[in-house]
Specification:
The complex is a heterodimer of chains A (105) and B (477). With 105 residues, chain A is mainly β. Chain A contains 2 helices and 8 strands. In chain A, a hairpin with a 2-residue loop joins strand 5 and strand 6. Chain B folds into 3 domains: 8-132 and 282-368, FAD/NAD(P)-binding domain (3-Layer(bba) Sandwich), CATH 3.50.50.60; 135-279, FAD/NAD(P)-binding domain (3-Layer(bba) Sandwich); 380-446, BFD-like [2Fe-2S]-binding domain (Arc Repressor Mutant, subunit A, Orthogonal Bundle), CATH 1.10.10. Helices cover 32% and strands 21% of the residues of chain B. Classes of the chains: A mainly beta (105), B alpha/beta (477). Chain B: Residues 10-337 form the FAD/NAD(P)-binding domain.
């Protein structure tokens, strides 16, 4: 039996995958997926480290309420990746702490 | 429909989920001109969340119960939009309601970095902002791979993705069965559904359950899907720890007593690569409580808006439908949206609609009571368990604030520890902080309340707003 998949379940026929860039590496993404969804599909669960403990975090609530899935997207820190669409060529960088190290004096 | 900043509408509906959609199209049926706002880019809210058009899903109904109800509402909306009676505006995050002489100004942001500020004016507002999940912390709950049950559903329904291959579903409430059944149907293995209660409370009020046969059919549907995939719920049990270093690799499950206290010696380890966890839903009512709307605590301890039979809140001109009046699901939200639309349009609803709402509300109350967290859940916490995920505040710090520094309420605990001051503004840690703030041996813990009923959350801003926008003042003033 063919393994069940979410796409198979809903009879999805997405167009060809495009790519986003995650920490310098190309990650496939489908039209309409959020950045977080593209990263999950690639097996990536964490793209931020916390400000105090330096612990890895990724999606928790998936609906934009918890702010755990923050990352730096196209140079902008603190973007909720569960809400931001993955566009061709979007550059996503693991965010360390508050993501504003460039502002340090 | 005019989009000038000076437009003045009959009605703004906030939230395009089941309640808001039903409210908007019914109000338009009754001759009202309205705008329907939502943070998402399409209608449906969380319940009817569906794949983006680009994913080309031919059968979105396979991830949904009652999909045709949604498509029916969406078709009516499209018709009203063509006729210029309703306008749906997605991507709008409402951060405040302001009362004016004529009615309300609804303040929202939109665009990347919330860069655009929008103000919409209307005589009346229907609040249908839904709910978010109640979370109770446990050791390891901040590990990547631990996601909310609703979050797993949302990511699956919109992005067609799973957080892992072996997903333990845990917590309490009917959402767990729905989540587990969609996860297995979509190809994940679910080694366990761990439910803290025993479902006995439903059996004690059979007439309430029998009055809503659709709920039985829905529940039976989830049960059948789980049986087919050999998933057995573990009742009166909880995940008391998630294991792993950089991502979750397993959980420890323990049996609970009637107060949700873990029973020593009953621990069992289960391997998994993800956990979907949640303890019911909490009404999202900040926009109304900031205007001083009356609230009441439901049978599950969650604070909801108090409304009359016409879904009117205590704030003149402000109606509320669905989860904001106490969590009860999509069918109830639709009934309340229709009732609110009739009331604000001065039209008499059918008596059958009122009766339907009463039956569904009674079932919702039963459900809420059945899944109310017991006070013993704090028994699975450890001193180093983070309570506040944003500010990384551990249990020990909260207990120190209560026991040594004399903090007697969540607000003081927050000021002393920063728990609840972070990005999510206490939406994730609020119930836990409220419960721990009550301390041991206090009135709240002796009353058997597992979650503090500390009054409604107050948040002057319903969502983050850039300071530059506030400094710029009203967009069209």
């Amino acid at each position: 039996m063919r393994r069940r998949t979410p796409a198979g379940l809903v009879g999805a026929e997405p167009g060809p995958a495009h790519h986003i860039v995650f920490d310098g590496r190309a990650v496939p993404a489908l039209s309409g997926q959020s950045i977080a969804a593209a990263l999950w599909a690639d097996g990536v669960l964490a793209w931020r480290t916390t400000r105090f403990g330096g612990r890895p975090r990724g999606v928790f609530c998936g609906i934009g309420a918890c702010f755990d899935c923050l990352a730096t997207v196209d140079g902008r820190a603190n973007q909720r990746t569960c809400l931001v669409p993955a566009e061709p060529g979007t550059v996503v960088t693991t965010q360390e702490g508050h993501g504003r190290a460039d502002l340090a004096v | 429909m005019p989009t000038s900043p000076y437009e003045f509408l009959d009605l703004v509906v906030i939230g395009a989920g089941p309640g808001g959609l039903a409210g908007a199209v019914t109000a338009a049926d009754l001759g009202k001109r309205c705008v329907l706002l939502d943070g998402g880019h399409s209608t449906g809210g969380q319940y009817y969340r569906h794949p983006a058009p680009g994913l080309g899903a031919a059968r979105p109904d396979r991830l949904h119960h009652g999909w045709s109800v949604y498509t029916g509402l969406a078709e009516r909306l499209a018709e009203h939009e063509r006729a210029g009676r309703v306008e749906f505006r997605g991507g709008h995050h409402v951060w405040a309601l302001e009362r004016t002489d004529e009615g309300f100004t609804v303040h929202a942001t939109r665009g990347p970095d919330a860069g655009d500020r929008v103000a919409v004016r209307a005589r009346a507002v229907l609040l249908a902002t839904g709910a978010y999940e109640r979370q109770l912390p446990f050791p390891g709950w901040t590990l990547p791979g631990v996601v909310t049950a609703g979050g797993a559903q949302a990511m699956l329904k919109s992005g067609l993705v799973l957080p892992g291959q072996r997903i333990v579903v845990a917590g309490s409430g009917p959402l767990l069965l729905a989540a587990a059944s969609s996860l297995v149907t979509a190809g994940a293995r679910v080694p366990a559904v761990v439910e803290a209660t025993g479902y006995l409370a439903y059996a004690r009020r059979p007439h309430v359950v029998a009055a809503v046969p659709a709920k039985l059919v829905e529940g039976a549907g989830h049960g059948t899907a789980l049986l087919r995939h050999r998933v057995r719920p573990r009742l009166r049990s909880a995940v008391v720890e998630a294991h792993g270093t950089d991502r979750v690799t397993g959980v420890t499950v323990a049996r609970l007593d009637a107060d949700w206290r873990p029973k020593p010696g009953t621990e069992r380890r289960i391997d998994c690569d993800a956990i979907a966890v949640g303890h019911g839903l909490l009404p999202q009512i900040d926009l109304a409580t900031e205007l001083g709307a009356d609230t009441l605590a439901g049978p599950d301890g969650a604070v909801a808006l108090a409304v009359d039979a016409g879904m009117r809140t205590s704030v003149p001109g402000l109606w509320s439908a669905g989860e904001t009046n106490g969590v009860g699901g999509a069918d109830l939200a639709i009934a309340e949206g229709e009732l609110a639309a009739h009331d604000l349009a001065g039209a008499e609803p059918k008596r059958s609609l009122r009766r339907r709402r009463a039956r569904l509300r009674a079932f919702a109350d039963l459900m809420a009571a059945a899944h109310r967290p017991g006070p013993g859940w704090t028994g699975w916490l450890r001193p180093d368990t983070d309570v506040c995920r944003c500010e990384e505040v551990p249990v020990a710090k909260v207990r120190e604030a209560v026991e040594e520094l004399g903090a007697g309420d969540p607000r003081t605990v927050k000021l002393l520890t920063r728990a609840g001051m972070g990005w999510c503004q206490g939406r994730m840690c609020g119930p836990a902080v409220a419960c721990l703030s009550a301390g041991s041996g206090s009135a709240a813990s002796e009353s058997g309340a597992g979650v503090g009923a500390a009054g409604p959350d107050r948040r002057p801003f319903g969502c983050p707003v850039p300071l530059s926008q506030l400094a710029a003042g009203e967009p069209d003033a």
